[in-house]
Write a structure and sequence with these properties.
transmembrane; alpha+beta; membrane; 207 residues; 5 helices; globular; 9-stranded antiparallel β-sheet; 9 strands; 31% strand
Length: 207
C-alpha cells in the first residue's frame, strides 16, 4: 500500500512537470519555425509527440518533428531510465527545395538508437559512403559521407550547434530526400538558439 501510494503521488507530480516541459518545447518550436499549418500526434500517455509543420518558406516546405521523453512519471521505471541513461530527444527533419551537395551523416556512436537509425538510412544510399572519425568539443563522432562538400556542410552545422552548448546526437544531409535532419537532447535554455542555427544552415543549403 505504501509503495502504491508513493507511485500515485510521484505520477501526478512528474506528470505535471512533463506536461509543462512538452508545452514549452512546442511553444519554442512554433515560435521559431512559424508553421503555416501544423498537425500533432501523441505517441503515448505523456511520452512525446510527432508533428508535421507545413512551412511557407522559399527554401523549405515541410518539417517533421519527433519529441520523446522517458516515462519518468512511472516510479518503478526509474531504475531502467537511470541504468540506460535515457534522455529526452528532439529530432527535426526539414524538407528543402533545392538539391543538396551529397549525403553526409555525423553521429554520436555512443547513442545506440542513433546508430540503428543511421545504419538503416545508409543501407539505402546510392553509393558506398566513406567513413571518418571527428573530434569536436572533445567528443568523438563518426562521419559517413559521399563527398567532401557534403561532409564540410554537415560538420559546420554540427560545430555551430556544439559551440552553443547543444547535446548533439546526429546531423544528416540527404540529397536523395532533399532533407536536413538533426537529433539532439533538448535543453529549454538553448533550444531556441539551436533551432535558429539549424534554420540558418538550411537556408544556406537551399540557396
Amino acid at each position: 500500500m505504501v509503495a502504491s501510494m508513493a507511485s500515485v503521488v510521484w505520477f501526478f507530480q512528474i506528470r505535471r512537470t512533463m506536461i509543462m516541459r512538452m508545452r514549452a518545447v512546442v511553444g519554442i518550436l512554433e515560435d521559431t519555425l512559424k508553421p503555416r499549418d501544423k498537425e500533432y500526434t501523441l505517441l503515448g500517455y505523456l511520452v512525446g509527440f510527432r508533428a508535421v509543420y507545413r512551412l511557407d518558406k522559399p527554401w523549405a516546405t515541410r518539417a517533421w518533428i519527433l519529441y520523446t521523453m522517458p516515462p519518468g512519471h512511472i516510479l518503478f521505471y526509474l531504475p531502467i531510465i537511470l541504468l540506460q541513461r535515457r534522455r529526452d530527444r528532439l529530432e527535426i527533419t526539414l524538407r528543402l527545395t533545392a538539391p543538396l551537395p551529397g549525403e553526409a551523416h555525423i553521429y554520436d556512436p555512443r547513442d545506440r538508437a542513433v546508430r540503428r537509425l543511421v545504419a538503416k538510412d545508409t543501407a539505402e544510399s546510392r553509393e558506398r559512403l566513406r567513413q571518418r572519425e571527428l573530434m569536436m568539443k572533445s567528443r568523438r563522432y563518426i562521419a559517413l559521407y559521399s563527398g567532401e562538400e557534403a561532409l564540410a556542410k554537415a560538420e559546420k552545422l554540427a560545430q555551430d550547434l556544439l559551440a552553443r552548448g547543444v547535446d548533439l546526437r546526429r546531423v544528416t544531409i540527404d540529397d536523395r530526400r532533399r532533407a536536413l535532419h538533426v537529433s539532439l537532447v533538448p535543453s529549454l535554455e538553448n533550444l531556441r538558439e539551436a533551432l535558429e542555427t539549424v534554420y540558418r544552415h538550411a537556408r544556406r543549403l537551399a540557396s
